[in-house]
Amino acid sequence: MSNLVTAIGGIFIRDNRLLIVRKKNTWILPGGKPEGDESDIVCLALEFREELGGKIDPDSVRPYKNFGGVSPHRGKPLEVRTYFVNILGETDSLRAQSEILQVALVKYLDMVDYINSDLTWSMVGSLHDDHYLRSDLSLVRRDPYA
Q1: Residue 75 has what pLDDT?
Q2: Residue 125: CB partners within 8 Å, gap ≥ 6?
Q3: 2 pLDDT band (50/70/90 cuts)?
Q4: Quick check: 72 and 28 in contact, CB under 8 A?
Q5: Any domain includes 145
Q6: What is the CATH number of the domain that holds 118?
Q7: What is 103-119 written as a DSSP string?
Q8: Phi-psi bin for 20: left (phi > 0), alpha (psi -120 to 50), beta?
């Protein structure tokens, strides 16, 4: 039996801001661990509803990447399967519930003030490297010959 824990992470980006949540003292992607034979999409839908009071569009869910590392909460080996999601309704209505203490939509360059988990940093860095999140500097860069 493997000690590897599997979690599902939802990636929601709006206006170049990534949705992150604070659980205990760590900022992470919203999501959770699937129970029994629960599919990844069902897991995401349940976690968004239970922990944020939000609803995702199940037809919008599409896979991104899997990330391996150490759980910031339990120190155990962890694999996080990540998916892009769309939230139905306004993000202003999302509220921290259950184990979640805070909810934030954060720009890439502001992440340093939030994230203290190597695993979450690897996910955010990958989203930046793959051009899903832009640094603010890229927004002001101009062609000197234009």
Answers
A1: 81
A2: none
A3: low
A4: yes
A5: no
A6: 3.90.79.10
A7: EEEEEGGGGGGT---HH
A8: beta
Residues 68, 72, 73, 74: is their CA dihedral positive or negative?
A: positive
Q: Is residue 10 part of a domain?
A: yes
Distance CA 119, CA 70 (A): 7
pTM of the model: 0.89
- pLDDT value of position 135: 84
State the average pLDDT for the chain. Answer: 89
CA–CA gap between residue 6 and residue 99 (Å, rounded): 18
Inside any domain, residue 61: yes
Total of domains in the chain: 1
Q: What are the distances in angstroms from CA 135 to CA 18, 36, 87, 89, 96?
A: 12, 39, 23, 27, 27
Supply the range of the domain harboring residue 115.
5-140
Residue 146 placed within a domain = no
Lowest mean pLDDT among 43-47, 57-61, 96-100, 135-139: 135-139
pLDDT at residue 131 above 50?
A: yes
